[in-house]
Amino acid sequence: MKKFFVFMGLAVFASSTFATNPINLRDEMMIMSQRLVLASKASSSEEFQNNISAFINAAEHSKVTMPTKWNGDQSQFPGYQQGIQKVIDVATEASNLAKEGKLDAAKTKLYEMAELRQMYHKLYK
Questions:
Q1: What are the C-alpha distances in Å from 114 to residues 1, 42, 44, 46, 71?
Q2: Residue pLDDT, tens place only, 19-73
Q3: What span, in angstroms and rounded, lies between the C-alpha atoms of 29 and 15?
Q4: Which helix (H) or strand (E) holds 63?
Q5: What are the start-end ranges of the E strands in the chain?
Q6: 78 exposed, middle or buried (CB, 10 Å; 0-12, 13-18, 19+)?
Q7: Residues 77-107: tens digit of each pLDDT
Q8: Residues of 15-34 as b/e, b for ≥16 C-beta within 10 angstroms?
Q9: pTM listed for this prediction
Q10: 34, 9 Cβ separation under 8 angstroms
Q11: d(Cα 30, Cα 44) in Å, to the nearest integer?
């Protein structure tokens, strides 16, 4: 599980080429990556929720930034935003599980993000 999240974190960092403002989006993606790793290693529900909240905040900021690769073409932006929203939804579900005291289930829920990442990176990266 640990290797999976480290890999996912590196992949998010490496994919930071899609941004309207590369520094801001790259920073947000890096925060998402780091917080996901920290959430997966959390030893308490509170620690998990703190990290997943920071992850969600970074994802919300990323959702409003159009990738520069598109050169202002907004035709793909709604799909990109939909993908980020699905990631946010998974993180929110995981947070709710942690609030219920189901830390292991919350950590397991995070595995869904790898599939979403792979699918949406193929479409929009």
A1: 12, 19, 23, 23, 27
A2: 444 446 778 888 998 999 999 999 999 999 999 999 999 999 989 988 777 788 8
A3: 9
A4: helix 45-63
A5: none
A6: exposed
A7: 899 899 999 999 999 999 999 999 999 999 9
A8: bbebbeeeeebbbbbebbbb
A9: 0.77
A10: yes
A11: 23
Cα–Cα distance measured from residue 50 to residue 69, given in angstroms and rounded to the nearest whole number: 32
Give the residue carrying structure tokens 């949406």.
120
| Cβ-contact 36, 5 below 8 angstroms | yes
Measure the CA–CA gap between 101 and 46, rounded to whole angstroms: 9
SS (H, E, C) the chain: CHHHHHHHHHHHHHCCCCCCCHHHHHHHHHHHHHHHHHHHCCCCHHHHHHHHHHHHHHHHHHHCCCCHHHCCCHHHHHHHHHHHHHHHHHHHHHHHHHHCCCHHHHHHHCCHHHHHHHHHHHHHC
